[in-house]
Each structure stands twice: as C-alpha cells, then as structure tokens.
Amino acid sequence: MSDMTPDLRTRFVAGMSYAACTVNVITTNGPEGRAGVTVSAMSSVSADGEGPTLLVCVHHKSPAAEKIAANGTFCVNVLRDDQSYVSDTFAGRFKNEVADKFDCTDWEACTGGAPRMADALVAFDCRLQSSQQIGTHHIFIGEVQDIHTTRAGSPLIYANRAYGASSPIEGTSTLKLATEASLAKVTVGCFQTFGPFLMPQLLCDAADLDVKLIDGDHRRIRESLASGESEIALLYDMALGEGLTTEVLTSLEPYVLLPEGHELAAQREVSPADLAEQAMILLDIDPSRDYFTGLMTDAGIQPKIAHRTTSLETVRAMVGHGMGYALLATKAGLVDEL
C-alpha cells in the first residue's frame, strides 16, 4: 500500500509541470498490431555499452503499452514545434475527426517494423531491452538500432501544461551583468495583428526595460502565458481559459476594408447583406477566422471566401488590388486608447 497523500501527489504533479520536456509520439507494430501514444517522459539512458539506450514511460492503460511489450520494438518520434497537431491526435483529442490516428501524417517503416514519422525532428528505432511497471506506468528501455533525422528545426516543448518552442539564449560575460539584466527584463506577448499599431510606441515608452516580444495567433499567445514564457500579453478577450488576470483596455468594433473606389465605400454603414455577393479575403488566424465568418453567418449570409491568409499585410494588399473585401478589428481607436 502506498503512503502517499493526495496533497503530495497534487504538489508533485504541479511541480513536475515546470520541468520542460520534448513531446514524442511512441509507435510500435508487429504480431500484436500497430499502436501509438503521445508521451513527454522520454530520456537518454546511456550512449555507451553494447549500444545507445533510452527510456520512455507509457501509462499501463494505453493500448500501446501492451503492444510495445509484445512486439518487442518501438520508435520514438520527437516532434518539431510545428507538429503539435500530431501530438494532439495521438493524445486522443481529435478522435471525432479521424478514424485512425496514423492518418494525421505520413509514415515509413523502421527496420524493426515500428512506424516512423516521415518528417519527425528525429526518430529513434528501438529494440525493447527491458521493461518494468512502477505505479501506473511501464518504463520501457530500448536499445537504439537506428536514428533518422529529416531537416533542421526546433523541438516541440511541453511545460506548464502548454506547448512551447525552444529559443537560443545569449549568455553574458559576467554574473553581475546577468543579474542586472534579469531585474529589468519583461516578456510581452502580442496578438499578431495588434503588433504593428501598438508595439513600436510601447517599446519606446519602456526604453529602460529589456523587453522581449512574442507575437503570434491567439493560441500561441495563450500558451506563452500559460507556460510562463510571457508575463503579460495583449489579446482579444475571447476563450482565454482559466487562471489569467485580465483587464479590458479598449473595445474594438469590426469594420469593412474595401478597395479604393469600391461602390460600397461611399456608404456610411455596410451590412452583411451588402457583402453577400462580394468576394471575401479572410484573415485566417485564431480567433479572427471564426469571429468574422460568424458575423456573416449570424446574419444569414454565407461569405464567399476567395482567399485566405494568415498575414494582415497580405489581406490589406489583396483588398488594395481589388480582389475582395475584408473584415477587420485591429486599429480603430486602439492606439489612442493606449
């Protein structure tokens, strides 16, 4: 019987959330069939001996655990920072969208038979050397038979219950300089469409601070807050989740961006019905895509999306070239308020 108290387990789980790990998909195939599961518990054991060895920990209730033990082979696919969807798929989050988890990406067969992602950051083809169950998890130690790398990239990191990406940190020449720099440093996340209008002035106003800027879509900035990568962020007040302290700085109203000389440009107001037959240039980032298309569908209009882009400047350029209209909510009133 375990003497561990529920409080100790809770504090252990919370404490371990600060230990950053790579995100890996462990796969196997053989007489007992194919399986795969997302894990963060993967580590090198030794590069010496008869061959390099590593270990992975898999929950005993995962179908992959039994199949790894029976097949005697597995592959550790270390994901790149743009492959979180593969992690989510093998964690079971898209089970309503895919009948087979392996359909989310392309695979090749390792020498031992386990499936290997065609474009993982690195993949380790392993022969099962030993296994042991401790608590709820099987510890599988694998002897590495082969290693496959595809292209340069950065690993997908999981820490503070959120995905993240690694970035190089420049060292300092002395401990004194490092201490002084840490006292005046702040990391700010900014929704990517706000950046051009807000950040230059804010950075000028905070000239006495060492400010690191993180920009990206809504999910990227939310995750930077959750992981502690950024201390403060400028975001829409939409689907922020729990555990964040928020303050409303201003309210933005959506507006229609039209090319010069467009027939609707002279109107004081433009309704969704006015845009029903017009081509739409969609800012295809979270949460803008759903918000802007929702404005149209809520009015009973199915927007005619001609082009999608994740770049605000590309949206503006396409509209400027007469390729369609765009719905935006970025600048009006924002700079003056802040």
Short description:
The chain is built from 9 helices and 19 strands. The chain has 338 residues and is an alpha+beta fold.
Rounded mean pLDDT score: 87
**Unreliable stretches covering 5 or more consecutive residues:** 332-338
How much β-strand is present in the residues?
A: 25-35%
The third-level CATH topology of the largest domain is Pnp Oxidase, Chain A
Shape: globular
Q: Tell me the number of helical segments per DSSP (H or I, 4 or more residues long).
A: 9
Compute the number of structural domains. 3
CATH architecture of the largest domain: Roll
Q: Determine the fraction of residues in helical runs and give it as a percent range.
A: 10-25%
Q: Radius of gyration in whole Å, from Cα?
A: 25 Å
